[in-house]
Design goal:
This protein is α/β, with parallel strands linked by helices. The chain contains 15 helices and 7 strands. The strands form 2 sheets. Strands 1-2-3-7-6 form a 5-stranded parallel beta sheet, sandwiched between helices. Strands 4-5 form a two-stranded antiparallel ribbon. Strand 4 and strand 5 form a beta hairpin. The longest helix has 26 residues.
């Protein structure tokens, strides 16, 4: 794949039906495909618009801090979300309180918006917990746990959506009560069989579900052009579900399209799909080195389409104050400092917790393994190893 040399070239390669509200410079310039969604944008007041920027900026501060913590040996691994904030924030804010969200493993903005404590993600990446948080705890806003198996969460989400259909918890016409599901996955995962199997069942059972694909252009080191000769959103349309490409670096486009898609799905119109065209500015994970397969020109072309810079320019044009931006910066710094402090206080894993949830009932093999580990570690303490 030949990378575009500048942002204009990248925009020229966008599909004709792309939904974009803000251009790369933060100017309100809706594409023709965005026109049906402008009523949703017009309904957003200044505090709400500023809140979208706050969400993106604060989570980026957290993301940078978490990356630093991994580099310093505090985490086993970290999957950065740097550059994908608009896709995540817009879609998460579009969901209603009763909706269920199924993330992959880098939806840090989504989880925080729904109420998950960021330290729970840290605990997961530090290896101190099997799941990170309890999805049934109301404080976590129906946010299901991270899934490291590529694409598996689409099956989980579709199964849950089928349950909503069977239980009559959607399609009644009451948008404030009917439930819907949104599932996040990446361009690499879109090639997994799990995703296509999930779409088969979603289409067949008309689940109240939105498949939200974050196309960040690279499946680790494999470019999207190698994965598919056609735009990825057209795969979903092959299953009979409406599929919409959006500018994933435009938080307003992400919000409006997701809001409309979720409400249509919850109303009984069947599943929808969204492809958010964005870019992974950082590494795939902290074990990856993107300089081995990406060019500086490509990275710079996308840096000029940064979602935060775009929204900041738009807000400044609407009269947002310097005090507002200073307050957002301070909030991000405070979160980063709090996460660092709490991470350093986490300590190590309790040995017994590794064996506690393997089976629902006691199992002799697990008990044998736990006893072996205790004996093995004791041999070091006694100097016999």
């Amino acid at each position: 794949m030949t990378p575009p040399e500048n942002a204009a070239a990248s925009a020229a390669n966008d599909p004709a039906d792309l939904v974009r509200v803000l251009d790369a410079d933060g100017v309100f310039a809706p594409t023709p495909a965005a026109e049906p969604y402008l009523d949703l944008i017009d309904a957003l007041d200044d505090p709400t618009l500023e809140g979208l920027y706050r969400d993106m900026s604060v989570i980026r501060a957290f993301d940078v801090q978490a990356t630093n913590l991994q580099r310093q040996g505090q985490l086993a691994l970290w999957p950065p979300s740097f550059g994908q904030e608009a896709a995540q924030v817009g879609s998460a804010r579009a969901a209603r309180a009763q909706d269920h969200l199924f993330p992959s493993y880098r939806e840090h903005a989504v989880t925080r918006i729904r109420g998950v404590d960021p330290i729970d993600i840290i605990r997961l990446m530090r290896g101190l917990t099997h799941g990170g948080w309890n999805p049934s705890d109301p404080r976590n806003g129906n946010t299901h746990i991270y899934t490291l198996v590529l694409g598996a969460q689409t099956l989980h989400a579709t199964g849950f959506g089928m349950g909503l259909v069977f239980d009559g918890r959607c399609g009644t016409g009451d948008l404030e009560r009917d439930e819907a599901v949104i599932v996040y996955y990446g361009d690499g995962a879109s090639s997994q069989g799990d995703v296509h199997e999930a779409m088969v069942f979603a289409a067949s059972y008309r689940t109240p579900e939105v498949f939200f694909l974050q196309n960040n252009q690279w499946a680790i080191s494999v470019p999207v052009a190698t994965q598919s000769p056609v735009p990825l959103h057209r795969r979903a349309s092959g299953y009979g579900m409406p599929s919409i490409p959006i500018d994933g670096n435009d938080v307003l486009a992400s919000y409006a399209v997701t809001r409309r898609a979720l409400d249509e799905a919850r109303s009984g119109e069947g599943p929808r799909a969204i492809e958010a065209l964005t870019y992974r500015m950082g590494a795939h994970t902290t074990s990856d080195d993107p300089t081995k397969y990406r060019t500086r020109d490509e990275e710079e072309s996308w840096r000029r389409r940064d979602p935060l810079a775009r929204m900041e320019a738009y807000l400044r044009g609407r009269g947002a104050s310097e005090a507002f931006f200073a307050d957002v910066t301070a909030e991000g710094a405070a979160l980063a400092d709090d996460v660092r402090t709490r991470t350093n206080a986490l300590g190590s894993i309790d040995r017994a917790s590794m064996f506690a949830h393997v089976y629902s009932e006691p199992h002799p093999l697990v008990a044998e393994q736990a006893a072996w580990l205790q004996s093995y570690e004791a041999s070091y303490e006694e100097g016999t190893a």
